[in-house]
Write a structure and sequence with these properties.
Number of helices of chain B: 0
Order of helices and strands of chain A: EEEEEEEEEEE
Radius of gyration of chain A: 13 Å
Largest sheet of chain B: 7 strands, mixed
Distance between the termini of chain A: 37 Å
Strand content of chain A: over 45%
Number of strands of chain B: 11
Helix content of chain A: under 10%
Radius of gyration of chain B: 13 Å
Shape of chain B: globular
Oligomer: heterodimer
Helix content of chain B: under 10%
Structural class of chain A: mainly beta
Largest interface: A-B, 19 and 19 residues
Order of helices and strands of chain B: EEEEEEEEEEE
Shape of chain A: globular
Chain lengths: 110, 116
Amino acid sequence: RKEVEQDPGPFNVPEGATVAFNCTYSNSASQSFFWYRQDCRKEPKLLMSVYSSGNEDGRFTAQLNRASQYISLLIRDSKLSDSATYLCVVRPAGDYKLSFGAGTTVTVRA
Amino acid sequence: GAVVSQHPSRVICKSGTSVKIECRSLDFQATTMFWYRQFPKQSLMLMATSNEGSKATYEQGVEKDKFLINHASLTLSTLTVTSAHPEDSSFYICSASTSGGSYEQYFGPGTRLTVT
C-alpha cells in the first residue's frame, strides 16, 4: 500500500467553481501535513501546511482528519492560474523525510 | 531567501555515459540535501539523503554505485548517474534543509534527464 494516496483526477472545473479533493495516508505516526503545488515540468512548491484544526489561506482551505487519516484541500472561486497538480505530502514526527502522493490534477477552464 | 539551484536544467546523453547534476543552496547553508526522482504521472520518490561531509543514505532499491552522491560542502551536493540507461530518464529534483529542527525542505527547479 502506498504511504500517500490521491485521486489522480483530472478535475476539470469552470472558472469561479469550487473544487475539493482528498488524500489518505497510511502512517499513523505522521505528524506534519502539507499541500504542494506542481506545475508541469517544474519543481513542487509549498502551497500550505495543514493544521489539526483546519486552516485557510485565501481561497484555499485545508482540513485534517487524524482519526480517518485523510487530508482535504478545497479551492474556492477557481482561477485559471489554479490549474496544476496538487501534491499531498506527509512527514513523520522528528524526521526530515517527506512522503509524496502522486498528485491530483486540476484544470480550470474559462 | 532559501533559494536552491540545479544545473543543468535539462540534459540528453547517450546510453552508457555518466551525467553529473549539481544542487546548490544559494543563500543558506544546507546541512542536509535530498535527491528525488519523479517519473511521469508518479510521485516524487526519495532516492537518498546526504549530510555534508558524510556518506549518503540511500533508500531501499536505489543502487548507491549507480547513483553517486557527493555532499562536499554546505552549499553543494552532486548526483552522478553512472552508465546511464534509457530507464534512468526521469526528472531529478534536489532539496535542501538547514539545521535547527524546522525540517523544512527547499526544492531546486529540477533536472530533466533523457538517455537515448
